[in-house]
Write a structure and sequence with these properties.
Length: 406
C-alpha cells in the first residue's frame, strides 16, 4: 500500500511541505486539505499584492534574531534551509527575485500571482492534490504503532501515514490540537499599530521620520527605526517591532499605556548642543519657520508648538528653559496609547502550539509520532519584512523531507 500524507492548510508552509514530500516520494499520495475557498490566500495579498517572500539576511543566526518567538529554535532549521535557499528554489523554477533597500525581497514581476503560479505548477508536477472547503473537525491518532491517522471533515474521512498541520493562526485548529493533548500558548496579536489621539500629531498622517526610537513607559521595551504618523496614531517599523517584541506584555496592559518618542534617534545632550548652536548662529530666524534635523516642516512646527514656542518666536528670544523644553519634546515626547489597530492582510499572532513539544530537526510532534507542524500554527512569529514567510518555507521544507523519510 502506497504511503499517504495529509497536509491541513493550503498556505505557504502547507504547499512547500507538500511539494517537497511529493518530489521525494513520487509514488506516495499527497493531499492538501484547505478549509477555505482558495489556497495561498495570504501569499496573494502579502506585500500589497507583491508578495514579500523573504528577506535578504542570509546568515542563520542573524536571521533568527528577527523572531520574538522562535529565535533559538529556528537557528538549526535555518542552517538547513535559509533565505538564500528560498531565493534559489524560486529562481530555479523561473521566478527571479529582487532586493529592495530595506532588505525585503520580492519577485521581479512585483506580482504575488507569480509566486502562486510557481507553487501551483510545482505542486501539480509533483502530483499533489488540493481539496478546497475541507474543514477538519477531528484528528484521530493511530491506535497502534505504525497505524494510520484518521482525518475527518464534514464530507470525508481520510487515512494517512503522516499528518502535517499548516493551518496558520486558526483558533479552531488550536482547539482541536489542545483536545488532542498539545499545549497551546494563548494567542495574542503580534503586529499592530498604536492608536494615539494627540494634538501634536493630529492632521499629520503620512509624515514619517527615518530614525525614531520608541520606549514603553514602565516596561523594558524599546525599538528603533522609521516611524509613520497615521490617521489613527503611529505605525511604521519602529512601532511594529515594538508591538512584536512586546506582544504579550502589551496585551496584559490591555493596549493602554504611554510611550516616549525620540523623533531623532539622538541623545538629549546632542540635541541641546545643536539647538544651542542654532541659537548662536541664526538668532534672527524664526524657530518654527526653519526646521532642524531634517524633520518634515509640519511635524517640526507641531513639536515646537507642543514645547510652548510661539509661531513668531526667534532663536535669540529662546531662553534656556524654552530650549530645554524643545529638546525634551524632540527626544522624550510622551504620548498616550489607547488601543491598537491590526493589519488584516498581514495579521500575525504570538501564540500557538508550544515549541517545547516540537522536534525542530523534523518539525514533528514530540507527543505524537507522524504529526508535523509548520507556519503560524506554531508559537513562532516575526516582524514584517518577509520573515514570517521564511519560517513557513523552512518549516515546510524540513517537515516535507522528514515525512518522506518515515
Amino acid at each position: 500500500m502506497k504511503k499517504r500524507v495529509i497536509i491541513i492548510g493550503g498556505g505557504a508552509a502547507g504547499f512547500f511541505a507538500a511539494i517537497r514530500f511529493a518530489e521525494l516520494a513520487p509514488e506516495a499520495e499527497t493531499r492538501i486539505l484547505e478549509a477555505g475557498r482558495e489556497v495561498l490566500g495570504k501569499v496573494k495579498i502579502s506585500g500589497g499584492g507583491r508578495c514579500n517572500l523573504t528577506h535578504a539576511c542570509f546568515v542563520p543566526k542573524e536571521l533568527s534574531k528577527f523572531y520574538p518567538r522562535g529565535e533559538r529554535e529556528l537557528i538549526g532549521p535555518f542552517h538547513r534551509f535559509c533565505s538564500g535557499d528560498t531565493v534559489d528554489w524560486f529562481e530555479k523554477r523561473g521566478v527571479p527575485t529582487k532586493i529592495e533597500e530595506d532588505g525585503r525581497m520580492f519577485p521581479v514581476t512585483d506580482n504575488s500571482q507569480t509566486i502562486i503560479d510557481c507553487l501551483w505548477d510545482a505542486a501539480r508536477n509533483a502530483g499533489v492534490q488540493a481539496h478546497l472547503q475541507q474543514r477538519v473537525h477531528l484528528l484521530e491518532p493511530p491506535g497502534e504503532p505504525h497505524g494510520h491517522w484518521l482525518v475527518h471533515t464534514k464530507e470525508n474521512r481520510y487515512t494517512a501515514d503522516a499528518v502535517m498541520i499548516a493551518a496558520g493562526s486558526s483558533p479552531a485548529m488550536w482547539k482541536l490540537l489542545g483536545a488532542l493533548g498539545h499545549t497551546i500558548v494563548e494567542p495574542v496579536p503580534s503586529l499592530f499599530t498604536f492608536n494615539i489621539r494627540d494634538a501634536r500629531i493630529e492632521g499629520l498622517q503620512g509624515l514619517s521620520v527615518p530614525k525614531a526610537t520608541v520606549y514603553v513607559q514602565g516596561a523594558k521595551l524599546q525599538a528603533s527605526g522609521p516611524l509613520l504618523i497615521t490617521h489613527w496614531g503611529m505605525s511604521g517599523p519602529a512601532i511594529l517591532r515594538l508591538s512584536a517584541w512586546g506582544a504579550r506584555e502589551l496585551a496584559k496592559l490591555n493596549y493602554t499605556f504611554t510611550v516616549r518618542v525620540n523623533w531623532l534617534g539622538q541623545s538629549l545632550e546632542q540635541v541641546r548642543e545643536v539647538l544651542d548652536g542654532q541659537r548662536q548662529d541664526t538668532p534672527k530666524k524664526q524657530i518654527q519657520a526653519n526646521p532642524l534635523f531634517a524633520l518634515p516642516t509640519r511635524l517640526w512646527r507641531s513639536l515646537t508648538t507642543g514645547a510652548g514656542i510661539d509661531e513668531q518666536l526667534r532663536w535669540a528670544e529662546l531662553g534656556n528653559k524654552g530650549l530645554g523644553r524643545l529638546a525634551e519634546e524632540l527626544v522624550n515626547g510622551v504620548y498616550a496609547v489607547e488601543g491598537k489597530s491590526t493589519f488584516k492582510e498581514e495579521f500575525v499572532t504570538a501564540g500557538g502550539v508550544s515549541l517545547r513539544e516540537i522536534d525542530f530537526k523534523t518539525f514533528q510532534s514530540k507527543l505524537f509520532p507522524g504529526l508535523f507542524f509548520a507556519g503560524e500554527v506554531l508559537d513562532i512569529d516575526a516582524i514584517t519584512g518577509g520573515f514570517n514567510f521564511q519560517a513557513a518555507w523552512t518549516g515546510g521544507w524540513i517537515a516535507g523531507e522528514a515525512m518522506a523519510a518515515l
